[in-house]
Amino acid sequence: MSTAVDHTDKAGAFKRKQSKHRHFVSKDNAQYPPESGRYHLHIALACPWANGALSTVALKGLDGAISHSIVHPTWQKTRPDDDDDAHHGWVYKAPGDEPLKNSIGHGSFKCDDLLVPDKITGAKSIRELYNLAGDEEGPFTTPVLFDKKTNTIVNNESTEILKMLNSEFDEFATNPDLDMYPADIQDELQELNDSLIYPKVNNGVYRCGFAKSQEAYNDAVKELFESLDILEEKLSKQRYLGGKKFTWLDLRLFMTLVRFDPVYITYFKTNQKRIADYPNLLGFVRDCYSIPEVKKYLSIDHIKTHYFTSHPILNTYAIIPAYDGPDLEAPHGRENI
Ligand SMILES: N[C@@H](CCC(=O)N[C@@H](CS)C(=O)NCC(=O)O)C(=O)O
């Protein structure tokens, strides 16, 4: 049983494990057809991938059709009564529960009002939920799209969950006309994602932070900042990555950039520059944040608390640094780009 921090190759480079649960809700899928009230999302607000999925629920107006629950940001031992079991990961708590310490007993991290326990299965951890669905191996990651009818996991790959939310539930959506995957630019967006944004930025920050050799870190940090320079230039000429429309790729980039200054520059050692030093990336972050459905589920508090308190091997005493990142409410000034 391992967590992302442990997933490195022989050269010390971080290698994210492939998601295992890959069913696709669609009208053509008799096993998992779109239905209102049937599916549930398990979410860590701190997690860029899960946060994007929940924002998409809000953007499409699917809150009434797809329920969700929200874990505590601080990873805990998932089998606290078993001394031989070392796994720690996401757990459910209710608002007002006793504050949690990190998994080796340091700090005190409140159970705030954003927490939503899993009332569907009663699972106390995301691991327990995977176990319920027959997965003992893990990794026990969020987001998880769960089927309440068959009590199993439909999908745990955020890129696929985003696609389903965009197109498969429109009959229940209050904003069905929003298309986050416009066909005319989808190939271009996918190519930009696959060649640069996912490997070098979204996952690139983790490749910096979870590297276990100087060489692996050096490679990742070089690619990350070269990519940020390319994106800064691109976003000096257009409002969003695909032009004038806000798409899934903007949401994915936003989720990384908004975590960059408050967390990654310190925790993942991505400190060559801050997002605040890139005028266009900073404006882009503020522009995305000004969308009410994006802002709705963005918690800098959960984000900082999660990273700084969840991996004792990286931050033993779970001290959370003071800086919250740039003012996200400031005018973005990008309306006419
Ligand atoms: N491929 C997954 C990755 C999700 C992922 O790595 N989530 C992290 C949080 S940001 C997680 O839950 N990690 C738990 C662990 O590594 O044990 C996706 O994009 O959906």
Automatic annotation (TrEMBL):
Chain coiled-coil ranges: none
Gene Ontology CC terms: cytoplasm
Xref: CDD domains: GST_C_Omega_like (cd03190)
Binding positions for glutathione per the UniProt entry: W90, E157, S158
GO molecular function list: glutathione transferase activity
Bias kind Basic residues: ranges: 13-24
Biased composition (Basic and acidic residues): 1-12
Annotated stretches, region: Disordered: 1-24
Residue span, GST C-terminal domain: 179-307
Active site residues per record: C47 (nucleophile), Y206 (proton donor/acceptor)
Domain of life, source organism: Eukaryota
Site annotation Lowers pKa of active site Cys: residues: Y264, Y307
Name the UniProt record assigns to this protein: GST C-terminal domain-containing protein
Lineage: Eukaryota, Sar, Stramenopiles, Ochrophyta, Bacillariophyta
